[in-house]
Amino acid sequence: MRPHINQGDTGEPSAFRDLTTIRVGGEAGRVFVGRTSDELVHVAGLTWQGPDEWMLLGGGSNTVVSEEGFDGTVILVRSQGIEVLDTPGEPADAVRLRVQAGHSWDAVVEYAVSHGLAGIEALSGIPGSAGAAPVQNIGAYGQEIAEVLHAITFLDYETGAITRMPAAVLGLGYRTSVIKQGRLGIVLSIDLTLRRSADTDNPLSAPVRYQQLADALGVSIGDRVPLAELRRAVIRLRASKGMVLDATDPDSVSAGSFFTNPIVTESAARTLPAVAPRWPLQPEEQAVAVTTFEELASGVPLRRAEAPAEPRLVKLSAAWLIENSGVSRGFALPGSGAAISSRHTLAITNRGGATGEEVAQLARFVQQRVQSEFGVVLQPEPVLVDLEL
Ligand SMILES: Cc1cc2nc3c(=O)[nH]c(=O)nc-3n(C[C@H](O)[C@H](O)[C@H](O)COP(=O)(O)OP(=O)(O)OC[C@H]3O[C@@H](n4cnc5c(N)ncnc54)[C@H](O)[C@@H]3O)c2cc1C
């Protein structure tokens, strides 16, 4: 099988500014494309045998690269397909989907909603690929992929083997996983367990958990609404914040939220103004994973240490911290092409011709403002290539 290589014959560009949603970054040394799982395994084998550095890219919606580019091989994940698997022994309403890694995540949600399957409808409108979805455990409007992810098929860089990894061994947490933490390999496909609504004529969503979404729908927390209505409401809300990719919306030229919500001890949170929003973490969210990579690789399920009684941890609102550190929507440093979104303080946007370095410079400025005002260090959410904060 001939791999698809760049310089014309893949139909794919080789500059990161054309491969990422924030549209910054220089050239890749070499681009391989995997349009099926087998092709991904093949191009990975070719790449991993050689001395080149390598990286993966799906939709490029969570990656920011410098103008120096990347002097190695980029493997573009473009495999497609959704299949329904048998689920013997599972509850009658369980429906298992296997999705190839390069499939558009939002197309998966659309498929689920149009087939009356609940569990991912609040994750409507998140850009990128299905294979990247577990990498940072995508989440929005009260749902996370961790709640429905059954397993992944993983091509392991260390062993070269294809393994099935149950979701329980992936260390899925708030915007993180063992893969984001450095476990090398390629997610070839993901298996999701969704629920078929009892009312097939009017399939309902999972219970609404996010207040802003409940308000937009005119319902209470815990209510269920028609699946399609929930999807429409989420996309409307996201679009109002520039968080749906839209060629006509300059605020959507971003990598989504640039910073994660910081997690600090309750006593650190007490030093903040009383009006600063905070949410106590659940005990299981506080428990630190203690399983080693080697154990995980050999299939040992993730173990967590006992959740500490003290100190309790709380999640803060990065958006609130940024706004209250004096950085307002639309803010840009003089002469820079990067700016805070005009509708969402957490997103850094490319207003035209920005460089990766300008994006990082603005991110550092925001970090410094928040740190000097509140003593909290914001962490970037996107993967930064050849850029540092
Ligand atoms: C407008 C906008 C809104 C967003 N809203 C949200 C949101 O609400 N919630 C949220 O969680 N995220 C959000 N994001 C971030 C982003 O969409 C998600 O993180 C998405 O899952 C990234 O997918 P991707 O294919 O574009 O990843 P890429 O940017 O291509 O890759 C991201 C990382 O995953 C790795 N990776 C990619 N594919 C694979 C694979 N098959 N196997 C192993 N590793 C892989 C890459 O190497 C890289 O390290 C938003 C982004 C944008 C631009």
TrEMBL record:
Pathway: Cell wall biogenesis; peptidoglycan biosynthesis. Its cofactor is FAD. GO terms for biological process: cell division; cell wall organization; peptidoglycan biosynthetic process; regulation of cell shape. Its EC number is 1.3.1.98. The active site is at 175, 257 (proton donor), 381. InterPro entries: FAD-bd_PCMH, FAD-bd_PCMH-like_sf, FAD-bd_PCMH_sub1, FAD-bd_PCMH_sub2, MurB, MurB_C, MurB_C_sf, Oxid_FAD_bind_N. Gene3D superfamilies: 3.30.465.10, UDP-N-acetylenolpyruvoylglucosamine reductase, C-terminal domain (3.90.78.10), Uridine Diphospho-n-acetylenolpyruvylglucosamine Reductase, domain 2 (3.30.43.10). It catalyses: UDP-N-acetyl-alpha-D-muramate + NADP(+) = UDP-N-acetyl-3-O-(1-carboxyvinyl)-alpha-D-glucosamine + NADPH + H(+). The keyword Cytoplasm applies. GO terms for cellular component: cytosol. It is found in: Cytoplasm. It comes from the Bacteria. Cell wall formation. Belongs to the MurB family. This is UDP-N-acetylenolpyruvoylglucosamine reductase. It comes from Klugiella xanthotipulae.
